[in-house]
C-alpha cells in the first residue's frame, strides 16, 4: 500500500508538470500572436487614404474612415473588397469646329494677298451688308447667329473655336484663317449674309476652293464634301432658293486655311422678306439645325 501511495504521488507530480508546461506554451503563443497583430495593424495605418464615391474622407478598400481622417483597418480585408472607380463620361463627339462670324465693326480697307504669296489683293475686311428692315450691319447679325450656332454645336458634343466674340475687332480674313490653323480645329465655317443691287435677289449658297486652287488644292475634296453636306440640309430645312455650292479661288478665308473650309451665305439683307426672317429666332434655329446636321453628316455622326 505504501508503494502504491508513492506511485500515486509520482503520477500527480508528472501531471502537474505537464499542466504547467501546457499553460506556459499557451501564454507564449498568445503573446506572440498579439505582437504580430500589433505589428500588422501598425503597418496598415500607413496607407494613404483615397477619396470614396460619396465625396467624403475615406480609406482604402477594407478600411473605415473617421471624421478626423484616421483610418481604422478592418480585421479581415478580402481581395474582392477593392473598388474600381467608374470611368469618367466623355462627350459623344470630340471633333473641333471653327466658326467665323463674318465681317466686323471696323473696316480694314488696306489690301492683303488673296492667298499666300499671291500678287492679286483684296480689302482685308468690311462691315458687310446693311439690313433693310433693322438698319443693322451684317457683322452684328453674323456674331449673333454664330453664338447661337456655337451653343447648339456644344450641346451636340463639339468643341467650338470662334475667330471673334466681339464686334469691335480688327482681324482680316487671312488672319482669321491663319488663327484657326494654329488651333486643333478640324473644319472651318465662315458665316456670312449678302447684299445685291436688286431687291429681289435672295437665297442661300456656299463657297469652296476649286479643284485647281493654287493654295489649298489638297483640301478641295473635303471642303466640297463639307459644303455640300451643309448646303443640302440648309435648302431642305428652310425652303430657301438654292444658289448652289460655288467654287471661288479669290477668297482669303479659303486660301489661307489649312483645314477643310467653306463660306456660307445664308441670305440677302437687301431682300425684305429674307432679311426679316434672318432676324427671327425661329428662322435662325432652322439654319442652325441644318448646319449642325450637315456637320454631323460630314463627320459621320
In short:
By secondary structure, this protein is of the alpha/beta class.
Features:
301 residues; alpha/beta; 40% helix
If you had to describe this structure to a student in words, what would you say it looks like?
With 301 residues, the protein is of the alpha/beta class. 40% of the residues lie in helices and 18% in strands. The protein has seven helices and ten strands. It has helices at 2-44, 138-155, 173-181, 220-238, 252-255, 272-278, 281-299; strands spanning 63-65, 71-73, 96-101, 108-113, 121-125, 159-162, 187-194, 204-208, 242-247, 261-268. The strands form three sheets. A six-stranded mixed sheet has the order 6-3-7-10-8-9, with helices on both faces. It has a two-stranded antiparallel ribbon with strand order 1-2. A two-stranded antiparallel sheet has the order 4-5. The longest helix has 43 residues, at 2-44. The radius of gyration is 39 Å and the shape is elongated. The termini are far apart. Mean pLDDT is 82; it is low at 35-73 and 75-93.
Number of strands: 10
Q: What percent of the residues sit in helical stretches (DSSP H or I)?
A: 25-40%
Largest sheet: 6 strands, mixed
User: Which percent range describes the beta-strand content?
Assistant: 15-25%
- Helical stretch count? 7
Shape: elongated
Q: Residue-averaged pLDDT, rounded? A: 82
Q: Report the radius of gyration as a whole number of Å.
A: 39 Å
Low-confidence stretches: 35-73, 75-93
Based on secondary structure, the structural category is alpha/beta
Distance between the termini: 108 Å
User: How is the largest sheet built, in terms of strand order?
Assistant: 6-3-7-10-8-9
Q: Summarize the helix and strand pattern as letters.
A: HEEEEEHEHEEHEHEHH
Amino acid at each position: 500500500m505504501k508503494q502504491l501511495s508513492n506511485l500515486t504521488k509520482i503520477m500527480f507530480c508528472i501531471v502537474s508538470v505537464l499542466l504547467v508546461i501546457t499553460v506556459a506554451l499557451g501564454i507564449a503563443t498568445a503573446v506572440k500572436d498579439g505582437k504580430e497583430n500589433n505589428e500588422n495593424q501598425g503597418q496598415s495605418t500607413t496607407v494613404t487614404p483615397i477619396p470614396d464615391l460619396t465625396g467624403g474622407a475615406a480609406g482604402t478598400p477594407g478600411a473605415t474612415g473617421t471624421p478626423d481622417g484616421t483610418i481604422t483597418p478592418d480585421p479581415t480585408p478580402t481581395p474582392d473588397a477593392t473598388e474600381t472607380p467608374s470611368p469618367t463620361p466623355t462627350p459623344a463627339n470630340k471633333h473641333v469646329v471653327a466658326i467665323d462670324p463674318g465681317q466686323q465693326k471696323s473696316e480694314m480697307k488696306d489690301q492683303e494677298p488673296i492667298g499666300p504669296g499671291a500678287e492679286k489683293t483684296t480689302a482685308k475686311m468690311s462691315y458687310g451688308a446693311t439690313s433693310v428692315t433693322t438698319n443693322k450691319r451684317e457683322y452684328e447679325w453674323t456674331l449673333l447667329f454664330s453664338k447661337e450656332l456655337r451653343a447648339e454645336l456644344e450641346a451636340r458634343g463639339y468643341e467650338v473655336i470662334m475667330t471673334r466674340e466681339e464686334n469691335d475687332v480688327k482681324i482680316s480674313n487671312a488672319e482669321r484663317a491663319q488663327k484657326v490653323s494654329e488651333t486643333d480645329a478640324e473644319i472651318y465655317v465662315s458665316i456670312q449674309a449678302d447684299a445685291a443691287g436688286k431687291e429681289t435677289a435672295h437665297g442661300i449658297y456656299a463657297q469652296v476652293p476649286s479643284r485647281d486652287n493654287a493654295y489649298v488644292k489638297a483640301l478641295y475634296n473635303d471642303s466640297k464634301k463639307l459644303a455640300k453636306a451643309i448646303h443640302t440640309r440648309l435648302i431642305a430645312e428652310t425652303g430657301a432658293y438654292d444658289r448652289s455650292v460655288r467654287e471661288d479661288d479669290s477668297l482669303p478665308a479659303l486660301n489661307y486655311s489649312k483645314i477643310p473650309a467653306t463660306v456660307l451665305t445664308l441670305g440677302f439683307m437687301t431682300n425684305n422678306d429674307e432679311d426679316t426672317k434672318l432676324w427671327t429666332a425661329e428662322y435662325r434655329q432652322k439654319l442652325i439645325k441644318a448646319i449642325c446636321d450637315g456637320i454631323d453628316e460630314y463627320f459621320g455622326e
